[in-house]
Amino acid sequence: MRKLRVLALMHEDLVPPADVGERKPDEIPPWRTEHDVLQGLAELEHEVRPLGVHDDLGAIRDAIEEFDPHVTFNVLEEFHGSSIYGQAVISFVELMRRAYTGCNPRGLMLAHDKALTKKILAWHRLRIPRFAMFPLGRSVRRPRRLGFPLIVKSSLEEGSLGMAQASLVTSDEKLEERVRFMHEQHGTDAMAEEYIEGRELYLGVLGNLRLETFPVWEMVFGEWDDDAPRIATAKVKWDAAYQKRHGIVTRAAQDLPEGAEREIVRVCKQVYRALGLSGYARIDLRLTADGRLYVIEANPNPDLARDEDFALSAKEAGTEYPALLQRILNLALAWRPAWKESAGEE
User: Fold this and answer.
1) 123 within domain boundaries
2) Mean pLDDT across the stretch 285-294?
3) In which band, very low, low, confident or very high, does the pLDDT at 164 lie, cut at 50, 70 and 90?
4) pLDDT tens digits for 177-211?
5) E strand or H helix at 185, and its extent?
6) pLDDT value for 91
7) String of b and e for 217-231 (b: at least 16 CB within 10 Å)?
8) Global pTM value
9) How many CA atoms lie within 13 Å of 46's alpha carbon, on the beta-carbon side?
10) Strands 293-300, 199-207: parallel, antiparallel or unpaired by DSSP?
């Protein structure tokens, strides 16, 4: 295997400390993903240099010119304090004619805008929840076609930011209250979408043109009140003690209806291609009791921590963590952006 110079791009606050030290089993450090990626790349014996950035593209330019990496491994989720600028950073790396891991800028832009994503998928006749947008500064008026219950979320933020049990609303008063909360607390447009009662499923997709999928993954709510909605709130996703208390786990989906897995794979590949994604992604879905499959959202560059869904589903398929990182590197080197095409590079 060719040894590579890899520039690992991450937020300056998430560069892992030199001495990780002992930690409690239920403690999830904020730099867990960055640490796992750096450790995995070291296991592959690549020469790795972490670079923490916040709002200075010059630091990226200087590191690329000095280190001359074969590839930039992108685990940066925001720039200048905003997640929407992540695509601009990768555009900058591409303009410097350098390889990078994960999704291309156009795919990031389309998938990051949840409303635009849904419009594209609807045009492709893929089943999505009905939804409405509530821009900042506008009055909150629910379209008649949109019935309750509804889930209110940010139109741009990732990682279930702002999602809680209160995000499920059943009246116009609660809808307005939650939309105002999202506007004031997170400063983004809000989206309200039809709540789909069903199984919470995920599918990992890997590839540029030829796509591979990993086993269907499921979030299981073990000790859960039957009357409470099963939604992936921020506490459900990121609070280890809360997960343990309520028996919340993610695992390979079991006892899917006949033909469901084949349909999930077909739909998720169609989503991936419709949005022009590349590298790797996770597609989030809901499967109702009567077998209807809904696409909730597409997540290019999902969390790459060793014990998160994407890496665990890859492991279930027989791809260990370092090998997964190597495959992501290989896809980065194989991706052909416009500058390679115009230069006629092999």
Assistant:
1) no
2) 96
3) confident
4) 999 999 998 888 999 999 999 999 999 999 999 99
5) helix 172-186
6) 96
7) bbbebeeeeeeeebb
8) 0.92
9) 27
10) unpaired
| Contact present, 285 and 218 (Cβ < 8 Å) | no
User: Looking at the structure, do residues 97 and 157 belong to the same domain, yes or no?
Assistant: no
Q: Would residue 338 count as lying in a domain?
A: no
Cα angle 271, 272, 276; round to 5 = 115
At residue 24, the pLDDT reads: 57
Structure tokens given for 281:
């992604």
38, 138: one domain: no
Instruction: Confirm whether 342 is domain-assigned.
Output: no
Q: What percent of the chain has pLDDT over 70?
A: 93
C-alpha to C-alpha distance for 102 and 76, rounded to whole angstroms = 11
* Same structural domain, 230 and 311: yes
DSSP string, 218-252: EEEE-S--TTS-----HHHHH-HHHHHHHTEEEEE
Q: Is there a single domain that holds both residue 187 and residue 221?
A: no
Distance CA 251, CA 247 (A): 12
Distance CA 37, CA 325 (A): 8
301 with 222, same domain: the answer is yes
What are φ and ψ of residue 320, in 5° steps?
-70, 165
Letter for the amino acid at 95? L
* Range of the structural domain that residue 58 is part of: 5-101
CATH number at residue 153: 3.30.1490.20
Confidence of residue 128 (pLDDT cuts 50, 70, 90): very high
Q: Which amino acid is at 67?
A: F
Total of domains in the chain: 3
- Does residue 133 form part of some domain? yes
Instruction: Give yes or no for a cis peptide into 129 (omega within 30° of 0).
Output: no
Structure token pair of residue 330:
């290989």
- Indicate the SS3 state at residue 175: helix
